[in-house]
Design brief:
The chain is globular. It folds into 3 domains: about 5-185 and about 360-400, Rossmann fold (3-Layer(aba) Sandwich); about 200-355, Rossmann fold, CATH 3.40.50; about 410-535, Jelly Rolls (Sandwich), CATH 2.60.120. The protein starts with 5 loop residues before the first strand and ends with a strand. The protein is α/β, with parallel strands linked by helices. Helix 1 runs parallel beside helix 2 (about 45-55), helix 3 crosses helix 4 and helix 8 (about 210-225) packs across helix 13 (about 325-335). The chain has helices spanning about 20-30, 45-55, 75-95, 110-115, 130-135, 140-155, 165-170, 210-225, 240-250, 265-270, 285-295, 305-310, 325-335, 340-355, 360-370, 375-390, 520-525, and strands spanning about 5-10, 35-40, 55-60, 100-105, 120-125, 155-160, 180, 200, 230-235, 255-260, 275-280, 300, 320, 415, 425-430, 435-445, 455-460, 465-470, 480-490, 495-505, 510-515, 535. The protein is built from 17 helices and 22 strands. The longest helix is centred in the N-terminal third of the chain and has 21 residues, at about 75-95. Strand 2 (about 35-40), helix 2 (about 45-55) and strand 3 (about 55-60) form a beta-alpha-beta unit.
Length: about 550
């Protein structure tokens, strides 16, 4: 038990996204249970409007700089604004008599540092991950990862929006003070007219959201004689949206695919839909999926992280490989004509009631807050002092602080993942000349199990084994560059280099490879005329 009465909810933005929807929903539940709640956010955007509508107090903060957009050298403006933000938030905490801060972001340092300065318990609520390929070449994942570790170390409790997100991060958390509380929706289900082929997608129109694959899937279904329509609620006026419009015209889908602005009233969207598709490349949870389950709309989702924890293929929805328009079309066809369609929809609705409705989450949050105590300030002060020193010495290079190496970011259109590494797997290394001392490779562990053991690595040059190495798998962070160190290898023009990875454990490891866009190359790969080419930096 504790004496927590007033809770501050810190948002990194005043725009409305999934994380902000959940923060406001939590605010409503805490208010209903007698807590005095106040949202703290920069500016007065849609979050402010929602808070006013729901009667939640709102305070603005000027300085919440993002560390996710830092390069290897910490920007002077970022450091100065962070120090100002700490002071500003500490004043807000003191003036409002806040007893607990819920830090709804893994993007900045202000929340945890201000809370620690005020000797206040802080809960960090993590809603997603940022892969290197989502941020572009200008930003360094090393810096981001280092600051992520600081945020975790300075948090009394860490809440993840899904078990998948927890598994992604738990390897870099020092304590066991974390848990997963699934996101939720409170949506009453009304009876609606039954259809078959009204498909909706509520993803933003962005590259990584699988919109092009959705359009291609609709085109394939039309060619099969299956007359479907697709409504996409995610217009945002970006350059990529122009590409989407061009794709619609190319496939002659102007009368089958319709683009809409996002809507606050999603209930009305689901009432006129039969199937929700979620074709994203990466989703830490999948809020639209549980909305659809609550509204008794059948779900077809890509295997993109969080959705794999929610959807059981053929039981309460359908799962497809991400990035595959043909797989998506096949799954939509199965969904339309399945004799078990009503059973699948009902199974999904029962899972919503059991796992993803507001009462389940409310109980877990109230229990977590009731047991939230201040930590060991002697230990925390070490992190605070280290961060303070780092911020006050602007321009410090941070490469050697973190585990992994991040030579460059990735364009999502250029990559694919390898087959699961079981036993030995060989990969061709792109040609170069000079000395090879180390190789950086992106690993991903798919099963969500605890990482353990070693991955053996060896280099062959022109068919001859010339150097071996190994990496400890408990030091591997998913979807981040991992450096493998070798003895010096001299590489000359026309030398053929191969990397052999060997692993015999139960975990499911894959590595990133170059994606070949030419259809003849894709056929050649299947017939083994081409070898897998590793996505790596030497």
């Amino acid at each position: 038990m504790n004496n927590i009465k007033k809770i501050g909810l810190l948002s990194h933005t005043s725009n409305i996204g999934g994380a902000e929807k959940m923060l406001i929903a939590l605010g409503e539940k805490l208010s209903k249970n007698g807590y005095d709640v106040c949202v703290i956010a920069p500016g007065k955007g849609l979050v402010f409007e929602e808070c006013c509508e729901k009667g939640i107090a709102y305070v603005t903060i000027d300085s919440l700089p993002f560390y996710i957009f830092q390069s290897k050298k910490i920007d002077e403006e970022f450091a100065n604004r962070t120090l100002l933000g700490i002071k500003e938030l500490a004043n807000i905490i003191t003036s409002l008599d806040i007893d607990l801060l819920i830090n709804n972001t893994l993007t900045n340092l202000v929340g945890v540092l201000a809370a620690n300065e005020c000797r206040l318990p802080v809960v960090t609520w993590v809603h997603g991950i940022l892969d290197p390929f989502l941020l572009g070449n200008a930003y360094d994942s090393n810096t981001r990862l280092m600051f992520d570790k600081f945020v975790f170390a300075l948090s009394n409790k860490i809440v993840f929006c899904s078990k998948w997100t927890e598994n992604f991060y738990k390897n870099i958390i020092l304590d066991d003070n974390y848990c997963a509380i699934d996101n939720w929706v409170d949506m009453a289900c009304d009876e609606k007219k039954k259809g078959e082929k009204r498909i909706i997608c509520l993803n933003s129109i962005e590259k990584n959201k699988g919109i092009i694959e959705a359009l291609e899937a609709v085109s394939l279904l039309q060619k099969r004689g299956i007359d479907v329509s697709l409504d996409i609620y995610g217009k945002n006026g970006t350059e990529f949206e122009c590409d989407v419009v061009k794709t619609i015209k190319t496939h002659k889908l102007e009368k089958k695919v319709f683009l809409h602005e996002k809507k606050d009233d999603v209930k009305s969207i689901y009432e006129n839909a039969d199937i929700l598709i979620q074709p994203s490349y990466l989703e830490s949870f999948g809020l639209t999926i549980i909305e659809a389950m609550a509204a008794k709309v059948l779900v077809v989702s890509a295997k993109s992280g969080g959705p794999e924890d929610i959807i059981k293929d053929g039981k309460n929805g359908f799962l497809v490989e991400k990035g595959s328009s043909s797989d998506l079309a096949d799954a939509i066809e199965r969904a339309i004509f399945s004799k078990k369609r009503d059973e699948i929809v009902d199974n999904a609705y029962q899972d919503y009631l059991k796992l993803y409705n507001g009462k389940v989450a409310e109980e877990k949050w109230l229990n977590l807050i009731d047991n939230c105590q201040n930590g060991d300030y002697k230990i925390k002060s070490l992190y605070v002092d280290a961060l303070d020193l780092l911020l006050r010495n602007m321009g410090t290079i941070v490469d050697d602080v973190v585990i992994t190496s991040s030579p460059r970011a990735i364009d999502v259109e250029d990559i694919m993942i390898s087959k699961v590494i079981k036993g030995k797997c060989d990969f061709r290394i792109k040609s170069f000349e000079g000395k090879l001392l180390e190789l950086s490779v992106i690993f991903t562990e798919l099963s969500g199990r605890t990482k353990k053991g070693q991955m053996k690595a060896s280099i062959k040059k022109n068919g001859k084994m010339i150097s071996t190495s190994a990496i400890s798998l408990d030091k591997v962070v998913n979807n981040t560059w991992k450096k493998i160190v070798f003895d010096e290898i001299l590489v000359e023009k026309n030398d053929k280099l191969y990397l052999t990875l060997e692993y015999e454990g139960e975990e499911e490891y894959v590595v990133y490879m170059w994606k070949r866009k030419n259809i003849l190359q894709k056929i050649a790969i299947k017939t083994h005329l081409f070898e897998d080419e590793l996505y790596c930096v030497v």
